[in-house]
Specification:
2 domains; 301 residues; alpha/beta; eight-stranded mixed sheet; binds 1,4-dihydronicotinamide adenine dinucleotide; two-stranded antiparallel sheet; single chain; Rossmann fold; globular
């Protein structure tokens, strides 16, 4: 069964190039009306104009699709409000929001100016929160919405020189962990995509001859699936070069050690048991963690 978005409206942030552009073209090819948002700045977030977004709109319309450009920054409250208003004025609904905009300010933690940490958190985390917050009441009213956030293996697992980026990228996973619960009754589903692609963001990390293999177009099918009618809710998909997997936080079986003065020593003595992930389980919400803990208390087993 083919996935189509006829009659649906999708906002894609940071869609003037790289992954966002590939997502925008694919959503449009599948019938969505697309808002191509992009600030048009440099990789480190400096500068900006709407030419990049307009060029992608021209590509979509040339291929017979429908799209409009928006040059707002996802960090700017008035700009985000304007983007949502522009979409509502044009098409009267918002079904899909793909939060994709991003920048880098890599440095080791010791050398990282706090301003670079703040800016990266502002763009990736708050630049996801603000558009999501702006479309949420519209999706709730419609009784339909699909939110995609863009995380990263750097956030899920770590990467040298990316404390700012990694913290922000795991932050968006924390966001969907609760949005998945709060959106459930209104058919709003929230998921995360962890891409791997050759773009201007990663061009200096990949060997040049991998550009075609790791094309952004090879990631977009995951964005399409996460924004589809039958999307899952609250999951993380990793996607690169046409290879897909799911990432999840898992918890080992809880071990009750008591509350004696030597409990720290008991943790050390039992560390291999506590850290044994062979029977690890995922939790769907924080309360499930608490239940697992309470079930280990004396008299409860
Ligand atoms: P890119 O640099 O080609 O695209 C990012 C786009 O976001 C640019 O067009 C830029 O102008 C736009 N942008 C930046 N700040 C903005 C703002 N404040 N408001 C609106 N637009 C803004 O990079 P790429 O690789 O396409 O990245 C897309 C997303 O995927 C980012 O969130 C990135 O962190 C994430 N990602 C990419 C990976 C990769 O392997 N390329 C790996 C993991 C995550």
């Amino acid at each position: 069964m083919s996935i189509r978005f006829d009659g649906k409206v999708a906002i894609i942030t940071g869609a003037g190039g790289g992954l966002g552009r590939a997502h925008a073209l694919e959503f449009a090819r599948r019938g969505a009306k697309v808002v191509v948002n992009d600030l048009g700045g440099a990789r480190d977030g400096t500068g900006g104009n709407s030419a990049a977004a307009e060029a992608v709109v021209a590509e979509i319309t040339a291929a017979g699709g429908e799209a409009i450009a928006n040059g707002s920054s996802v960090t700017d409250d008035a700009g985000v409000a304007n983007m949502v208003q522009q979409t509502m004025d044009k098409w009267g609904r918002i079904d899909i929001l793909v939060n994709n905009a991003g920048i880098l300010r890599d440095k080791t933690f010791i050398k990282m100016p706090i301003e670079d940490f703040q800016l990266v958190v502002d763009v990736h985390l708050m630049g996801t929160v603000k558009p999501t917050k702006a479309v949420w009441p519209i999706m709730k009213e419609q009784g339909y919405g699909r939110i995609v956030v863009t995380t990263s293996s750097s956030g899920l697992y770590g990467n040298f020189g990316q404390t700012n980026y990694g913290a922000a990228k795991l932050g968006v996973v924390g966001l969907i962990n609760t949005l998945k619960l709060e959106g459930q009754k209104d058919n709003i589903r929230s998921n995360a995509l962890a891409p791997t692609a050759f773009t201007r963001m990663t061009a200096d990390l990949f060997p040049a001859d991998t550009e075609e293999l790791f094309s952004p177009e090879a990631v977009s099918p995951a964005a399409i699936f996460l924004a589809s009618e039958d999307a899952p809710n609250g999951i993380v998909i990793c996607a690169g070069a046409g290879v897909f997997s799911m990432a999840q936080v898992m918890e080992s079986q809880p071990v009750a050690l008591g509350r004696e003065p030597d409990t720290a020593e008991k943790i050390a003595a039992n560390w291999s048991k506590i850290s044994d992930m062979s029977k690890a389980e995922a939790r769907n919400l924080g309360g499930e963690h608490l239940t697992g803990l309470v079930n280990q208390l004396p008299g409860r087993k």
